[in-house]
Amino acid sequence: MSKYWNERVHKLEPYVPGEQPKDKRYIKLNTNENPYPPSPGVLAAIKAAVDDSLRLYPDPEAADLRAALAERFGLSSENIFIGNGSDEVLAFSFMTFFSPDRPVMFADITYSFYKVYANLCLLQADVIPLDDSFKMPVSAFCEPSGGVIIPNPNAPTAQGISIESIRKIIEADPDRVVIIDEAYVNFGGESVVPLVKEYPNLLVVQTLSKFGALAGLRVGFAFGAPELIQGLNRLKNSINSYTIDRLALAGAKAAVEDTEYYKRTAEHIIRTREHTIEKLSEMGFKVIPSEANFIFITHPQYDAEALFHQLREKGILVRYFHQPRISNYLRVSIGSDEEMEAFIQAVADLVKA
Amino acid sequence: MSKYWNERVHKLEPYVPGEQPKDKRYIKLNTNENPYPPSPGVLAAIKAAVDDSLRLYPDPEAADLRAALAERFGLSSENIFIGNGSDEVLAFSFMTFFSPDRPVMFADITYSFYKVYANLCLLQADVIPLDDSFKMPVSAFCEPSGGVIIPNPNAPTAQGISIESIRKIIEADPDRVVIIDEAYVNFGGESVVPLVKEYPNLLVVQTLSKFGALAGLRVGFAFGAPELIQGLNRLKNSINSYTIDRLALAGAKAAVEDTEYYKRTAEHIIRTREHTIEKLSEMGFKVIPSEANFIFITHPQYDAEALFHQLREKGILVRYFHQPRISNYLRVSIGSDEEMEAFIQAVADLVKA
């Protein structure tokens, strides 16, 4: 606390990202990074951009990247906003579309940054409890509110929601913005990006950090009707005209154009996920159905927090959330086959002991 | 306007950056970029960072870069905040240290983003007129307010303010934060970074976009007492945990460590500036004393806006501000010797005609 902070900053409860420890090498299954590298084309495109032109500002409108995304998704550039990772896109969306006078709806078990954004924007939150099997209760999200944000698939549960359910929530009130956060949609979920042409109140957010294997480059997107995108641009241009550097622009464009490479990578991760689920199920773990590059697991006989610490001692990082309803769960990112074998072996040893 | 934007976004008046036209090649003297490239060490450090580790998140605390800056400036890492360009650092500072209940002070002729930030944060602005020679009126800035922001040197005038004057403004009220925006300080001004150890209410903001020749990389810094830096981190971590990508972290660290190269570059720019001023003065231009990598010029017989358009037709971009008191001025970035010869020749032709 400090007398120099304003009231809002005093009341903030900042997000805490998964730990990035430097004390030793860990098998990192705690921040949902892609275990496989960016495509060779991406690395080549970035290297080609490392030159004297770094002295010049980047294109503040990211025109080339937006054109590449428009081409890939069958949209127009006017449907696309680019941000410094999807977290920035989400923060700007909260600042642009939601108001303190009407609550924003999100699930009780969901990406914990939403609560932070609501707090930042002095918004009321209408927190909707997931049902007993951690599914989104669609009818509750159709009740009146000032806006909705739903990840598909959800985090940290990894469970998806159907396009038909999303349509119902969007159609329940055409005057409120519904944000679908598709950070993990490319690992088995179904994207609603095509629906932005149909619904002016739908904003879809994606990122290159997971599927694109570029968490280190910081690029996220929003797809929506032009008036939603214009609102985001007004906000962005009141904070920072140039949020994406020249190298990130070059790398992101190459990633968008190299979909085949990334599809193969995602298919590999899905196979590894299914194998991991099979092995964990044999050990008595309950695994929430996953459409993501991570799984959410619990065991009736073992304490998740204890397992978290025991795995950490064995050099394996997973994510534990000290939070009601999920305090006996672990979120485990899907790593490479070798990393997951090591994880399965470590868990088996702990469960046997 | 859109029914989906909240009230605040409706009222925003976003910043308009200098144009980046793509219709043909211009001599770009309109966005104060460095005419010389980043140091070879910077390009090598970035290239070395283009590898598979881009799949991993960057260090959210930018520990290595902060350590390099601490070393260079004789400070501690706790005194240093890193942002996505100094614009983001400034926006976050407005969001953290200023409140709607007390006005923030800035000059009538200054960096036009300050008004945008004030608007974004719903702040009142106490706008202080520069004196007739465009100097900061120190006593006016010592009057009560909720905060102060002053660029040293000022933009777009390029004129500096003395450290003694800054001390007076800081000491006038130890309970309010004074931000000194040193985007251009390395072209002849004197930095107050050492004073952050003395004054808990001083925040100094710098950037790699000008002196560091890395406008395309998006890195800015704030220096201040640990409690100011903690406030900025609370705000940042409520928006985006990872604002600086891996490549920018690598390049910025190399730039901070390569001060000798950049000092030589700045000295060259200063020599070019003085030569340009001499030539323009011979043509009857009045040039505000410059401590920056740009100059602010006016001519008693020629209309600045007309000159702006005529120069543009000749392929030379400078910046014109349609604004009271400075509507007959042009801001001209200092380019390479060749670029400035072309500019001087073009102006001479226009003035003769």
Helices and strands in order, then pairings?
The structure is a homodimer of 353-residue chains.
Chain A: H1 7-11, E1 27-28, H2 40-49, H3 63-73, E2 80-83, H4 85-97, E3 104-107, H5 113-120, E4 125-128, H6 138-141, E5 147-151, H7 163-172, E6 178-181, E7 202-207, E8 220-223, H8 226-236, H9 246-257, H10 259-282, E9 286-287, E10 294-298, H11 304-313, E11 316-317, E12 329-333, H12 337-352
Parallel strand pairs in A: 1-11, 3-4, 3-5, 5-6, 6-7
Antiparallel strand pairs in A: 2-8, 7-8, 9-10, 10-12
Helix pairs in contact in A: 2-9, 3-9, 4-5, 4-8, 10-12
Q: Can you give the mean pLDDT of chain A?
A: 97
Distance between the termini of chain A: 45 Å
The number of strands of chain A is 12
The profile of the biggest β sheet of chain A is: 7 strands, mixed
Q: Give the name of the CATH architecture of the largest domain in chain A.
A: 3-Layer(aba) Sandwich
So what's the oligomer here?
A: homodimer
How many helices of chain A in DSSP terms? Answer: 12
The ordered string of helix (H) and strand (E) elements of chain A is HEHHEHEHEHEHEEEHHHEEHEEH
CATH class annotation of the largest domain in chain A: Alpha Beta
Could you explain the architecture of this structure?
2 copies of one chain form a homodimer. Chain A has 2 domains: 124 residues, Aspartate Aminotransferase, domain 1 (Alpha-Beta Complex); 219 residues, Type I PLP-dependent aspartate aminotransferase-like (Major domain) (Aspartate Aminotransferase, domain 2, 3-Layer(aba) Sandwich), CATH 3.40.640. The radius of gyration of chain A is 20 Å and the shape is globular. Chain A contains 12 helices and 12 strands. Helix content of chain A is 38%, strand content 13%. In chain A, helix 2 runs antiparallel to helix 9 and helix 4 crosses helix 5. Chain A has 353 residues and is of the alpha/beta class. Chain A has a 7-stranded mixed sheet with strand order 2-8-7-6-5-3-4, sandwiched between helices. Chain A has a 3-stranded antiparallel sheet with strand order 9-10-12. In chain A, 54% of the residues are buried. The interface between A and B is large, with 84 and 84 residues.
